[in-house]
Amino acid sequence: MKTDNKNIDAGKVAALRSAGWRTERIAAEMGITPEAVEEALRAHAEKPVREQKRKAEEEAKPEKIVCLSATELREIYEKAAAIGAREALKTFEQERKKEYSHRADKRLRNTKLLLRNYHMLKEHAENSVFGRTQMKESALDILESMMSIYNDEVIIQSIKNSATRTAIIVSHIETMFGLYYSYCDRSTNREIDLRRYNVVWDMYMAEDTLSAKEIAEKQNISKDSVYSDLRVGIERLTALIFGVDGLNVR
After folding, report:
1. Left, alpha or beta for 164 (phi > 0: left; psi -120 to 50: alpha)?
2. pTM of the model
């Protein structure tokens, strides 16, 4: 028979008493003496009181006050300021890179848009019934204004609204194509770069443009190579048309 109260499950004893069991029955059930049952019940009843007292004592303890010297406070301030500055700079750099990437993507998209509409713009500039006026606006001014418009039709219409604007953009595209040819002609990979130039020319600029399949047959390359040449060629043209900043050129 157990006599060590430490090994007695006081919770079970209390549960049995709550169920209406008498002391002797609890003692027989748990193999302990009736005195041990009564002791376990008292301990179980006193436990919430002891816990409440302990919490009250903890809450009553005075708060510790840490005193820092002026030098220590200054060091803490300087460290906090340095950490804050580093985090601010990190955030700024992340936002700058995000904006840089966004502008590069937008310029690449706008280059493709101009190339797809080159013949229509050229015809519009040549056949416009409206006379051209003297404008202080440059090609780069017009191209920069395209960066804030996100609808392709609106971009093209904004150029077509002015015969002078249209002529400026068409002339700029043709001039940059000429520079691109000069670059390819002097390239250390002349054969490949001239092929890329011709692929882009046949796709967009030639009087009779060709499909990717027709270009592949003309250049004796696969259609995948045609699309690869277009991608690289248009990236390089974008750097020329919009300016090299804002685009990673291969």
Report:
1. alpha
2. 0.56
